[in-house]
Amino acid sequence: MQLSKETLDKLYGFADLVVETKQFGNLISAKDSEKFLSRHIADSLIPYIAMSHEPSAMSNNSLLTAQSSPLKWADMGAGAGCPVFPLAIAMPEVQFYAVEPRHMRVEFMNYAKEKLGLKNLTVVGKRFETSGLADLDFISCRALSTFENDWERAQPALKKGGLFVTLKSFNSISHLENDPAVNIWKYKLPNEEQDYALVTRGNND
What we know:
By secondary structure, the chain is an alpha/beta fold. It has eight helices and seven strands; from the N terminus they run ααααβαβαββαβαββ.
């Protein structure tokens, strides 16, 4: 996958902000800091890679070309910004919402948004259920809770035909392999032994 120099520069810039910025508390552990690019940034870009190169992994991929107005994508429990910041950097045509209730994380994300000049990202300092967001094209989360719990939280805010997107360890979702309602794309990350999975479910109710 080829990324533009501008995109790469912003991804590196975001990584530096997460690892080096201390005024908002410890955003990431020392161990994770050493592999932030290969583990967290790479993982965050998996939905973008799937949309670009593995359409079968994104069952409602037609959303990307089906409308002229900007797509709306919310990330539940955005934490320090993964996956929503890398996705917003890679897809400037999509309107992203980083939803996170913890004050220090919200302060950091607003700081990072200004530093990186991300006009397509809005930080929402609330729990997802009280955020007021609705009729969304995409809702994502990364290692938040179980797939079932995350889907239950996301579905009411998805538009009909919208897509729920989550990143999990494969072991935690292996029981879904025969579920016809979900789509699973298994992948590996650099220097990581375990398998991971991009899991999607369309809101077809």
